[in-house]
Amino acid sequence: MVQELQQRVLAAIDENEMIDLAKSLCEFPSFKTEETEAARFLADYLSQRGYDVQLQEVDPGRFQTIATLKGTGGGKSLMFNGHIDIDPIADGWKRDPWKPVVEGDRLYGGGIRNMKSGDASMIQAAEAIRKAGVRLKGDLVIACVVGELQGGVGTTYLCQHGPLTDMAVVTEPHGAHNIMTVHAGVVAMAVHTKGRSRHTSRKGDHIDAIEKMYKAITAINNIELTYTSRPDLPDLPLVNVGVIIGGMGRDYDLKGPNFSSDFCTVLVDIRTLPGMSSESVVADLRRALDRIKAEDKDFNYEIEVPPPPFFKVNRVVMEPFELPQGEYIIDAVRRQYRTVTGKDPEKIGVVLPNSYTGNDTCHLWKAGVPCVLFGPRGRSESSEIPDEFTPISEMTLVARVLALTALDVCNLPNN
């Protein structure tokens, strides 16, 4: 009986339909904070197919799509989670990123890598179950969330307002042959130095905030963080000063290069190991900056975690995530991968360098939802040509494995 259901569902996987959906999604330039048009498209798409759909207003006028394939009752619930915000488009594309195209096994398009390929795969998995006429006992929730690239704004909202499920799979682009269960924490922060502005002709008593930032950057890059090293995550922790801006006042007025700066900011990204926390990172940074202040009476600083909304970066801290081995969802995905391919996944657990990234699994796990990362990989054509693509074969494999995983999990008794 189980094998018969599996074959019915696998036969309902429609690769062309999945590709068409992925293409449609790539036509939306859904950069962070600009996802609503794509969310409304998905809401219409899933409503027309009989899902119970809600548009969640995460911020005023900013929506994400949550769709549920309702179960008959008495079974475990499962969430497929993928974000619809995309990374900036690199300069130098040879193709039009907003006109997706298939070339052999590759689907090219803006945002296909991270992570509209995963979105299309998880929706196709749900569609295969629906079109096969299989009624699951538990609910299958399709969460197309916003703001993962801001630290998980949309999934954090989902965790606070529901619906939550018994288990979840997040379809980030870490490869259809890997099940990832560990990722770094991500602490994004703004470090400000404050000064006293004077005209260039009267600089005798100025305090240049940019000049003070030189000292701060040196301290940040040489920070002594508190942690216990792990051989399977050898590069962690990682520290990166990625943005600097200075000018007049907290709005960074840039119209006065004839004045010394009285406010300067760097944005810092710190990747942490399991066992570390955002609080320990900030405490370590304060110790480093306080040593400068003890030697320089004119050195004044502030730390903001997360950075101010002005910068449109992480609004939420992603703490380190490690799902304990033995959780049912790991075995379910592994078992169904074996059903589809006849072999075990290449990697289960840490997947390098992918585990140095952060993602929404940490928020789901904190909310009590065991979850794994399993999605089609994405990449750029080459270092010279930044055109993003995803192998269609991996998208199809993910859809097949996820469809069988839903059969597995959602038909477990909900005791």
Query: Can you tell me the CATH superfamily of the largest domain?
Result: Zn peptidases
Shape summary: elongated
Adjacency order of strands in the biggest sheet: 1-2-6-3-7-16
Distance between the termini: 23 Å
CATH architecture of the largest domain: 3-Layer(aba) Sandwich
* Number of E strands: 18
State the name of the first-level CATH class of the largest domain: Alpha Beta
Structural class, by secondary structure, is alpha+beta
Q: How helical, in percent, are the residues? A: 25-40%
Return the CATH topology of the largest domain.
Aminopeptidase
Instruction: Return the average pLDDT rounded to an integer.
Output: 96
Main β-sheet, in a few words?
Answer: 6 strands, mixed
| Count of DSSP-assigned helices | 10
Strand content: 15-25%
Give the secondary structure arrangement, pairings included.
Blueprint: H1 2-11, H2 15-26, H3 36-47, E1 52-59, E2 62-69, E3 78-83, E4 101-103, E5 106-108, H4 112-131, E6 140-145, H5 153-161, E7 167-170, E8 178-180, E9 182-183, E10 185-194, H6 209-221, E11 238-247, E12 263-272, H7 278-295, E13 300-304, E14 321-322, H8 328-341, E15 347-349, H9 361-366, E16 371-373, E17 379-380, E18 388-391, H10 392-410
Parallel strand pairs: 3-6, 3-7, 7-16, 8-15
Antiparallel strand pairs: 1-2, 2-6, 4-5, 5-18, 9-14, 10-12, 10-13, 11-12, 17-18
Structure description:
- There is one protein chain.
- With 415 residues, the protein is α+β, with helices and mostly antiparallel strands.
- The chain folds into two domains: 273 residues, Aminopeptidase, CATH 3.40.630; 127 residues, Alpha-Beta Plaits, CATH 3.30.70.360.
- It is built from ten helices and 18 strands.
- It has a six-stranded mixed beta sheet with strand order 1-2-6-3-7-16, sandwiched between helices.
- The mean pLDDT is 96.
